[in-house]
Amino acid sequence: MTTDLKEIITKERMIALFEKNRKEIFKNDPEQVSELRQQAFDSFIRLGFPTTRMEEWKNTDLKEWLGKEYDYPLKPQQGMDAHQIFRCNIPHLDTAIIGQVNGWYVSKDVPLIRLGNGMILGSLAQAFREYPEIILPHYGKYAGTGKSGLTDLNTAFACDGIFIYVPDHVQSPKPIQLINVIQHDENIFLQSRNLILLGKDARLSLVHCDDSYNHQASFSNIVTEVHLDEGAVLDHYKLQNLNNNSVLISNTAFHLEKEAELVSNFLTLNGGMVRNNTDVLLNGSHGNASIYGLYLMDRKQHIDNHVYVDHAATDCTSVEMFKGILDENSSGVFNGHVYVRKDAQKTNATQSNRNILLTDTARVYSRPFLEIYADDVKCGHGSTTGQLDNEAMFYLMQRGIGPESARMLLMFAFANEIVGKISIPELRFRIEDMVKKRLQGELQICEQCVLHCSTPEHPMEFDIDLSKI
Amino acid sequence: MLLSIKNLHASINGKEILKGINLEVNAGEVHAIMGPNGTGKSTLASVIAGREVFEVTEGEITYKDKNLLKLSIEDRAREGIFIGFQYPVEIPGVSITNFMRTAVNEIRKYKGLDPVPAVEFLKMMEENKRLVEIQSNLTNRSVNEGFSGGEKKKNEIFQMAMLEPVLAILDETDSGLDIDALRIVANGVNKLRTKENAFVVITHYQRLLDYIIPDFVHVLFEGRIVKSGSKELAFELEEKGYDWIKKEFE
Amino acid sequence: MESDSNKIIDSFTSGEYKFGFITDIETDMAPKGLNEDIIRFISAKKNEPEFMLEFRLKAYRHWLTMKMPEWANLKIPPIDFQDIIYYAAPKKKKVLASLDEVDPELLDTFSKLGISLDEQKKLSGVAVDAVMDSISVKTTFTDTLSKLGIIFCSFSEAVQKHPDLVKQYMGSVVPYTDNFFATLNSAVFTDGSFCFIPKGVRCPVELSTYFRINAANTGQFERTLIVAEEGAYVSYMEGCTAPQRDENQLHAAIVEIVALKDASVKYSTVQNWYPGNKNGVGGIFNFVTKRGICKGSNSKISWTQVETGSAITWKYPSCILLGDNSVGEFYSVAVTNNMQQADTGTKMQHLGKNTKSTIISKGISAGHGNNSYRGLVRIAKNAVNARNYSQCDSLLLGDKCGAHTFPYIQVENTSSIVEHEATTSKISEDQLFYCQQRGISMESAIGLIVNGYAKEVLKQLPMEFAVEAQKLLSISLEGSVG
């Protein structure tokens, strides 16, 4: 069943849609989820969609995107061949792939897989039925209600998404690759919901890809909640590679308990309008969160990274480092906010945003905020926007390197500070390659997922890495 | 004649720094340019390299019978001009390996040669690292980033060895070096000397010239070469100091 | 050691206000409240030409449509704008011909503040305009200045004697519609200083205005206008104090600066309004709009501020860099102690080519104080080769205060470079130990370190002010000294 919005999206239309499909939306819910859904819906009625009048959305305007006509499938579509869709793969990268099509979990086998080590992977809707005792203490708790109209809208509507559970002391034997593909013959509106739970001292590498397979417009409003229990370690990658007609609102709430460790890497290589809302709560002492981001935008693309790191406990460290190269008419927003609560002594927080503008029509809005209520802290932030360093250009050219290659070298070096943080080597090589191609203007959104569209690889002129020889 | 500079005037932001330089350098020669601080030594190197902030207002530079001033920065380099910088810039994120590989291959392309195969290139790197006694890990680091003063200078000589220039201009390569580093740098230079190439060593002190024996010594003062002579001139300068020159020419 | 230093920081940071006395002087007051009649009353009282009344009424009508801004990181208690007296002037019989005719109480007030209005002041090379309850009481040094064609007088006098200049420039930088407080000021301002430096003239002395709120229940709404014509230079200083009263008093001022081609204006402020007592009772609400425009090429406007007073500070001295190669600077030290709150910073609007701006902000928070830096750097598309460097540091003394940094950076061309750096730190035990090991008491050590921390800004102040600012800085942090 596909619900046809066929008119511009407004608060009123979403409310009507919800009321009309109430039965379908609530049908899988444990009671607690139903309550939350209703609460979020009421809150959405109050808050509505964000507008540029709101401080948080000042430089990101959804009006044009909400003004399109979209299909909104409230049930998974039939006849999807998971094998056909998820052949997308990174060479030599051995991962367990779980896939979503248009926000719905897709599988060739069963909706929920339980591994020998106790890990559970699969459909959130199914998990609601099978494992409410694992889910209910966490679901909705980290994303919250009443803070953001879009998150509330997701909480009200979302019926499925990915569920990953790593029990206490279990280390995932290989990285999990979560692929969210948008493939629809018409414009599509989708809202999926993911819940990722890491038990005490659990370890996981998670590669989360958003891809589109065609040029249809899409509007994705995704909420992902992640809980890291004491001592858990999560290595998280968000690869965003959507067509120029897509909007992606990616809300991710990380909740870290004592001594938990998070590395998250947001790599935005393409997309019409991408907004990453990343909330990190350091809830126990000695937690550690590093949030990195790289965005390479051109044409009329818009990227908006909001990162809010809440230091609620002592002795925690956080790093925010976002870098971007903006070409043509693209625009970028960075809004970082480090909040150090009164008792969060011995906090160490740094924040940096660096941008390179390649044309006079590209724009950057950078707002690295610090809000500090504890005195024994080390906090610093920096923001620079400019061009490539002239001194470095001269130095490279004096060594006989032409201006074009020199530019490429410096741009790649600029981007590579983020790419270099990727700790899965196969993934890093692949991203390095994609970044190079992107910088040379070779990489456009393909008919297929770009992750495997560009074979065979041919190394760039300046490319040589000892580890490859 | 490899390099011929005639009546060279150059200025920066309207302020004249070089006020009529004349200099001739033949293949196989080593020239030392000495002089007090702020007299235009580094400017001369920059102008030869083609740095755009300096404006040549008068005079000419002929290099290999070509008008050097018409060439771009990178084409001058590809024609064999190498500057060992006094303050090499740090380039975060660009590994020395990538950097050198790009430079070597672009220079080869300019000469109509194929790129160096990877294995051969790495061999070249290893050999030249040994020449200047660079620890192996240095080459995996970003260009000059976090290098000590001595490491930076060694890295300049290393790059010189990699690029095999025809005319190398070393701008105060000795400044800030301890005696061991100085010896290593000088050894590197001496091993690279041939009948086909030439060196211009810019220095403030005579010290370096104990290790790199010049054929000619020039004294640059207030934008002009005011005195030229053999290596003995350097000793004289060391002994009498620059005040002697200043008195004579002020 | 830890608890020791905390104790000393506590005693340090609970200092008391030194300028809290009240002058007993006859005051001419309007009734409380605000309406069109009050505005007509003010205008009539000041014998203003018609255009001034029109300006005021336009502003007032616009103000009625506005709401108080809420975006600042401040907790502002509700302000009853009808419970304020909008006009209070020291009573005077006639136009003063010489200093002898100034009320001795008034002279005494200013001398208590260390500001002498007598002609001796000439020797130190500072011309003073003293403003009490928004009314200029005396301007010194006018003869010397007028020989150079410099006009330095009260705003009221300028309205009478130079209406054309006032008409031309008033509201040209801060329009009457600008913001809630500026609009209110435009409707009700009573006096202030006016300064005009003609073409090619370098003002030989520092010009200085001292502001003093005296009467109770009054708001202070002064307005300063500085115009520097082509090639002119002036250094202008502003100081302020108020008596200690239990109720909050509102101060909503406007400063406008116009710098034409090659002109340079340096504006320094040492703001020491009454900050309220330790428990946050009383104190001035300081909502100030200060803005300069570098209209001509190669012009320069430099703001330096040392903000130690006021219960609440809401203030963003800004530069519109319109002329090519123009330069804007902002140097700030802001101290919040006890229950004080400050949300202060700057806006640098780069519109012209090769424009440059520098922002150095040092926030010091102590007690329960909350100190926010908020600054905008915008590089417009046509501002090719623009440069900005910002450095915003925060120092925390004690564990009950807050230090915040809210930079807004907006870049719209490729040839510009914008850099922003910030750090937040406390005085390190190592620094204190090092000082103590050299025989310096912990108290003096904190004073030393704080002054060292603020030095980059203090050195921008004219000599006359720097000493005062340094003392003030120590006093506002010290409880045990003085």
Explain what the structure shows.
The complex is a heterotrimer of chains A (469), B (250) and C (482). Chain A is an alpha/beta fold. Chain A is 22% helix and 37% strand. Chain A has two domains: 2-283, no CATH class; 389-469, no CATH class. In chain A, the strands form three sheets. In chain A, strands 5, 6, 7, 9, 10, 12, 14, 16, 18, 20 and 22 form an eleven-stranded mixed sheet that branches. Chain A has a ten-stranded mixed sheet with strand order 4-3-8-11-13-15-17-19-21-23, with helices on one face. Chain B has 250 residues and is an alpha/beta fold. Chain B has one domain (3-249): Rossmann fold (3-Layer(aba) Sandwich). Chain B has helices at residues 41-49, 73-78, 96-110, 118-131, 149-163, 179-192, 232-240, 243-249, and strands at 3-12, 15-25, 30-34, 54-63, 66-67, 81-84, 91-95, 142-143, 167-171, 198-202, 216-221, 224-229. Chain B has a six-stranded mixed sheet, with helices on both faces. Chain B has a four-stranded antiparallel sheet with strand order 2-1-4-5. In chain B, helix 4 packs across helix 5 (149-163) and helix 5 (149-163) packs parallel to helix 6 (179-192). The model of chain B has no long low-confidence stretch (mean pLDDT 88). By secondary structure, chain C is of the alpha/beta class. Chain C has helices at residues 2-12, 36-45, 50-63, 104-112, 121-124, 142-147, 155-161, 163-169, 180-188, 429-437, 442-458, 463-477, and strands at 27-29, 88-90, 126-132, 135-139, 151-154, 193-197, 206-212, 223-228, 233-241, 248-251, 254-259, 264-271, 283-294, 300-307, 312-315, 318-321, 327-336, 341-350, 356-366, 370-379, 387-397, 402-411, 417-426. In chain C, the strands form three sheets. In chain C, strands 5, 6, 8, 10, 11, 13, 15, 16, 18, 20 and 22 form an eleven-stranded mixed sheet that branches. In chain C, strands 4-3-7-9-12-14-17-19-21-23 form a ten-stranded mixed sheet. Classes of the chains: A alpha/beta (469), B alpha/beta (250), C alpha/beta (482). At the A-B interface, helix 9 and helix 10 of A face helix 2, strand 7, helix 3, helix 4 and strand 8 of B. Strand 23 of chain A pairs antiparallel with strand 23 (417-426) of chain C.
Short overview:
The complex is a heterotrimer of chains A (469), B (250) and C (482). Chain B has 250 residues and is of the alpha/beta class. Chain B has helices at residues 41-49, 73-78, 96-110, 118-131, 149-163, 179-192, 232-240, 243-249, and strands at residues 3-12, 15-25, 30-34, 54-63, 66-67, 81-84, 91-95, 142-143, 167-171, 198-202, 216-221, 224-229.
